[in-house]
UniProtKB/TrEMBL annotation:
InterPro entries: Plipid/glycerol_acylTrfase
Species lineage: Bacteria, Bacillati, Actinomycetota, Actinomycetes, Pseudonocardiales
Transmembrane annotation, as ranges: none
Domain Phospholipid/glycerol acyltransferase: from-to ranges: 34-153
GO CC terms: plasma membrane
Stretches assigned to coiled coil: none
GO BP: any one term: phosphatidic acid biosynthetic process
Pfam families noted in UniProt: Acyltransferase
SUPFAM superfamilies xrefs: Glycerol-3-phosphate (1)-acyltransferase
Native source species: Amycolatopsis rifamycinica
The protein, known as: Acyl-phosphate glycerol 3-phosphate acyltransferase
Alphabetized UniProt keyword annotations: Acyltransferase, Transferase
SMART domains: PlsC (SM00563)
Molecular function in Gene Ontology: 1-acylglycerol-3-phosphate O-acyltransferase activity
Amino acid sequence: MIALLVRFVLGPLVRAVYRPEVHGVENVPLTGPVLLAANHRAALDTGVITFATPRQVKFLGKAEYFAGKGLKGRALAAFLGGLGYVPVERGNAQAGLAALEAARKVLDAGGVFAIYPEGTRSLDGRLHRGHTGVGALALATGAKVVPVALTGTEKLQPGGARIPRLAKIGITFGKPLDFSRYEGQDYAPAIRRSVTDEVMYAILEISGQEYVDTYHKRPSEGVA
């Protein structure tokens, strides 16, 4: 029920207020597993992707957000679930594997999963080297990978503003990438890196950002 409210009530309302420029939405396959690989400009990127994509999208979310007590805690958990967040424990040695497994379950069921290959939002506006999780998921599930470029979302909450401000934002969906030519090679690190680099180049082409071939350092807790 919450998911339906988010999709058919809150979604149209947000689109009417912010009027995001959406391009290439026809590039998102309407059936089958799809991996949306996006650049990451702001904390609200997830909401923008959710409201602009024709299919329900799943994302990773911190498990502690779903563990709140009382009515407020349950309401937050329900809302995050409606937005498409999948709770995953973080901060331990198995966190990365748990995240990939949660994403794989969504894709194996024929769903849509969104991932930020940079691993964290860009604080300098540039596109940074992608982590190979996106390559591993694409190879393991056979999902089509749709590159996504977000623009202007960093202006929605300047200076950590609590209420999102009006700003010109855009989202572009690129042509889907098919990596079936690498079938059976999903455990090869070199292939994962090759696939990831191809995805990052596709994001670069539609985002127009400057590319930096180094991983972005994760912001301190409370900043991301």
